[in-house]
Amino acid sequence: MPGKERGERALPGKGTGSKPRTKSAGGAPEPAEPRETKTSIEEVKVNENLNRRSTLLSCQESSADLKSEQAVRPDRLGEYIGQTRLKSMLTMSINAAKSRGEALDHVLFYGPPGLGKTTLARVIANEMQARIHLTSGPSLERPRDIIGLVHQLEEGDVLFIDEIHRLSRIAEELLYPAIEDFVIDLTTGKGHATRTMRLPLPKFTLVGATTKAGMLSNALRDRFGFVCRLDFYTIEELSGIVARTAAILNVAMETEAVEAIARRARGTPRIANRLVRLVRDFGHYQGAEIIDGATASSALDSYQVDALGLDVTDRRLLEIIIDNYDGGPVGLETLAATIGEDSDTLEDVWEPFLIQRGFIQRTPRGRMATAFAYQHLGRAMSATVSSKILLNSEVKQLDLFAEKLPPQSGQAEV
Ligand SMILES: Nc1ncnc2c1ncn2[C@@H]1O[C@H](COP(=O)(O)OP(=O)(O)OP(=O)(O)O)[C@@H](O)[C@H]1O
Ligand SMILES: [Mg+2]
């Protein structure tokens, strides 16, 4: 598309900013700030409460994450580590679309927070040399939000809708023809004078992201050409991400330190990047020029992140199921109330990792601690609990992210 200004547009509702990328080819080093560092470490040390998890091991985005995001977010598929199958599918499809001179088919990404859905949407736009418009489901409430949005689209643009499961019904219905046939129906007048005009739209790519794939209507899901599930990352993949982030932030780190961080990052790049910053600050505070394994481990220990990436609240969650409910099953709402967390956060943010790593099972009757959880916490299992766990291993797990969404006809599923 010659002569077209390429870039990124943030639309209302997702404060992602529309600044051009500032990262240099080698990555701009981020200077450490010793004064700030000292304060934050001391603050956290005295603040031994559960809020710590929301700033440290939460996979939800914090303002500190946003600040360093621009420098460390991969821009191209070649820099994006992990999700191998998904990447090769995207590479193939992007190349095919580019060689035909067409827009890429619509893509839906689903999976727990912090695994790289938004990053992939930007990567797609970069690879397609297209502009990206960023918005989110809740900000597209009224018809005029949608109309204003599609009005800005140009041929080949990427429209990214985060939290797409939160689109209002009206917005969803207005979007259907836009997604399927690249037209939009405008309604004018009232009562008998109502008129509908069908306007053509340029061919664009819708990229949707959600942490709650189960809440998406079938009608909307069916309209995506690709439905892609993001998985938790392996230790090796996270080590790659940690090493890359450390290099961009200009932090010298030994392999043992890289691995120590990767092992405790809950399978999540956002947390891995946060732990790199934390370990960097800790090392800086201690005057270490090169971060070795021992420094990284003591930094992580001081924040009570254990060797498997569980923090105080993870362990407390498991202890509550074990001690208060004899290993479960316990309902989500009851558990959320006991732990003082809202049930959505518990379900979307904390549980997926604990389930995926085999600490919790999600059964039709509620959450149960596994034998592995007892073992990790060093708790003995009574005979009743053992047989309960054994019986439960026969029960089908209700884990959204452990199961793939069933593909629809003509839909590529990764
Ligand atoms: N594969 C990857 N390689 C390197 N870094 C990654 C990768 N995936 C994600 N990241 C990093 O992790 C951070 C979080 O990713 P991103 O914001 O894309 O997650 P998300 O899935 O959109 O989360 P949410 O559901 O909260 O919106 C980004 O800053 C990015 O730098
Ligand atoms: Mg996102």
Topology at a glance:
Elements: E1 8-10, H1 34-46, H2 51-55, H3 63-72, H4 84-100, E2 107-110, H5 117-127, E3 132-136, H6 143-151, E4 158-162, H7 169-180, E5 183-188, E6 195-200, E7 205-210, H8 218-222, E8 226-229, H9 235-248, H10 255-263, H11 269-285, H12 293-302, H13 312-324, H14 332-339, H15 343-356, E9 360-363, E10 366-369, H16 371-376, H17 383-392, E11 412-413
Parallel strand pairs: 1-3, 2-7, 2-8, 3-4, 4-7, 8-11
Antiparallel strand pairs: 5-6, 9-10
Helix pairs in contact: 1-11, 6-7, 9-10, 9-11, 10-12, 11-12
Magnesium ion binds near residues 117, 118, 162 and 209.
How would you describe what is shown here?
- With 414 residues, the chain is α/β, with parallel strands linked by helices.
- The protein has three domains: 34-71 and 233-302, Helicase, Ruva Protein, domain 3, CATH 1.10.8.60; 83-232, Rossmann fold; 312-392, Orthogonal Bundle (Arc Repressor Mutant, subunit A), CATH 1.10.10.10.
- The protein is 44% helix and 12% strand.
- It contains 17 helices and eleven strands.
- The chain has helices at residues 34-46, 51-55, 63-72, 84-100, 117-127, 143-151, 169-180, 218-222, 235-248, 255-263, 269-285, 293-302, 312-324, 332-339, 343-356, 371-376, 383-392, and strands spanning 8-10, 107-110, 132-136, 158-162, 183-188, 195-200, 205-210, 226-229, 360-363, 366-369, 412-413.
- The longest helix has 17 residues, at 84-100.
- The radius of gyration is 23 Å and the shape is globular.
- 38% of the residues are buried.
- The structure holds adenosine-5'-triphosphate and magnesium ion (MG).
- The site of magnesium ion (MG) has 4 residues, from helix 5.
- Magnesium ion binds at residues 117-118, 162, 209.
